[in-house]
Amino acid sequence: MLAQVAVNLILNACEAQPRGGEVRIRSERVGAHAVAEIADRGQGVKESDRERIFEPFFSTKDSTGLGLSICHSIVRQHEGELTVAAREGGGALFRMTLPAQEAR
Q1: What tens digit of pLDDT does each residue of 21-40 get?
Q2: What is the span of the domain harbouring residue 31?
Q3: Which residues are CB-contacts of 36 (< 8 A; sequence separation ≥ 6)?
Q4: What rounded mean pLDDT belongs to the chain?
Q5: Is residue 85 part of a domain?
């Protein structure tokens, strides 16, 4: 399920910007958490929309508005957090933070 969240966020980032734009994917461990970031150089998410972006049926484009809501729910089911912020230099930055698991 978390892989589907990553795919959805990457596809959203690709669709948010002009052809040939940059999508940056980064991950790191921060203390007891694993953090993954997906960033684009699109128009970004307006500050007024950031509070609602994960609500069911809310969309800033021609879509059902369910994709990000489902992603948010999946991440929360895994005791994590999904947030959106403005990317420095323009665009959006989605950050998924989850409890880290030790390698087996």
Answers
A1: 899 999 999 999 999 999 99
A2: 2-99
A3: 6, 25, 26, 27, 95, 96, 98
A4: 92
A5: yes
